[in-house]
Amino acid sequence: MADAAGTTLAARPGGLPALLDFARSFGREHGLPEAAVHRLVVILEELFLNTVQHGHGGGSDAPVTVELSLLADELRCSYTDHAPLFVPPAGLPSHIERAPDARPLGGLGVAMARSLASDLSHSQAGADGGNRIAFSVSLARA
């Protein structure tokens, strides 16, 4: 049983179920705590939907690659897309603390991913742009 796996799919809304199935299958195959797998699934859903909706304006055949690996007490993930470079804000968006009916739509995906992950980092994926997001999900926290 390998401790690493990856998948690549088109940045289209219809690809989301396959991505989440991949994450859940990895968790089952490795006997990971359900809470850790749930955090991974929520993070991947947010990242993928941001890529599709904001990066590609609703979808693209451009690839999204997700690589998962296990280290001692954490699940590591590398998420790479080919959408235009996005530089996430350093902190939480200022509207996150407003009442839900008083804040604008959006802007919470990155904040949610940061709150569920450890060591989340962002970099340009290649010379032509794209985004690479690396993060870990603690297995001990589960």
Automatic annotation (TrEMBL):
Q: Which residues form the Histidine kinase/HSP90-like ATPase domain?
A: 10-135
Q: Which residues cross the membrane?
A: none
Keyword entries, A-Z: Kinase, Serine/threonine-protein kinase, Transferase
Single GO MF descriptor: protein serine/threonine kinase activity
Lineage, top-rank taxon, reads Bacteria
* UniProt cross-references to Gene3D superfamilies, sorted A to Z: Histidine kinase-like ATPase, C-terminal domain (3.30.565.10)
One short Pfam name that applies is HATPase_c_2
Q: Quote the PANTHER family the UniProt record gives.
A: ANTI-SIGMA-F FACTOR RSBW-RELATED, SLR1861 PROTEIN
The molecule here is called Anti-sigma regulatory factor (Ser/Thr protein kinase)
Species lineage: Bacteria, Pseudomonadati, Pseudomonadota, Betaproteobacteria, Nitrosomonadales
